[in-house]
Amino acid sequence: MSGSPTAPGGARARNGLAPNDPAMYDRLAGEWWRPRGVFAMLHWLAASRAALVPPAAGEGAVLVDLGCGAGLLAPHLEGKGYRHIGVDLSLEALRQAAAHGVLGIRGDVLAVPLPDACAEVVVAGEILEHVPDLPRAVAEACRLLRPGGLLVIDTLAATALCRFLAVGVAERIPRIATRGVHDPALLVDREVLVAECARHGVPLTLQGIRPSLTDFALWLRGRRSSVRMLPVSTTAVLFQARGRRAW
User: Fold this and answer.
1) Buried b (16+ CB within 10 A) or exposed e, 155-192
2) Mean pLDDT of successive 10-residue segments in the chain (247 residues)?
3) Domains and CATH numbers, the chain
4) Beta strand 229-232 with 205-211: parallel, antiparallel or unpaired?
5) Residue 122 backbone phi and psi in degrees, to 5
6) Distance CA 42, CA 213 (A)
7) How many CB atoms lie within 10 A of CB 202?
8) Cα(69)–Cα(51) distance, integer angstroms
9) Which pTM value belongs to this model?
10) Nearest Cα to Cα of residue 245 among 12, 110, 64, 95
11) Of 236, 155, 11, whose CA–CA distance to 24 is shortest?
């Protein structure tokens, strides 16, 4: 989530930072690997995202993790056979990611400093809702994929329901979402996402997800270490998307 460009100007400041300001992640750098800390839900999402990534088909396969943060995806990719490359703006996050086996590259997801068609898998987890130019971010993600390569996304939808739940409610619940982490204006238009991916040769399939309420209740009571993400029929709030580059 922290590989996003600087927040758009004019946004209302919260706690000295504008909504969606990448500096928030540096201020909270000590929280990344605390499974019950302020980034707890990112751990649950990382596990769910990794479940969409198949084992590598051969030696040397590359997975590019856009907005990798401190590398929360890494433990869930162990044994799958990928060279895990993470792209992020935060040097501290990249330092922590490196400690978990991620080859970190400092860069903006709108201009990724990697060559065309370099990856068998590109993952964009909880990052697209932070970028001010969705088509450009999609173009970069698709550019990195080899023909037949897999794109995996999870993000938040640009709907009134999502703005209410993900910003209005979730940012007021400790350990679910940090206050000011989202700019509602940047939530992802699903039609634009699908159309832009298709324009770059990657047809997408979308699936809504949500935390297991039973797991969440047990987690709050300290009786579970994590929370499963479950499929739901609507993509109007939190959703995953995946597709393979056709050409």
Assistant:
1) bbbbbeebbebbbeebbeeebbbbbbbbbbebbbebee
2) 42 57 83 90 96 96 98 98 97 97 98 98 97 98 98 98 88 71 93 98 98 95 95 98 96
3) 23-244 (3.40.50.150)
4) antiparallel
5) -120, 130
6) 16
7) 24
8) 19
9) 0.91
10) 64
11) 11
Task: Map 192-237 to HEC letters.
Answer: HHHHHHHHCCCCCEEEEEEECHHHHHHHHCCCCCCCCEEEECCCCC
Cα distances from 148 to residues 51, 116, 131, 196, in angstroms, run: 19, 14, 26, 17
Where are any strands of DSSP class E within the chain? 62-66, 83-88, 103-106, 119-125, 145-156, 205-211, 229-232, 238-244
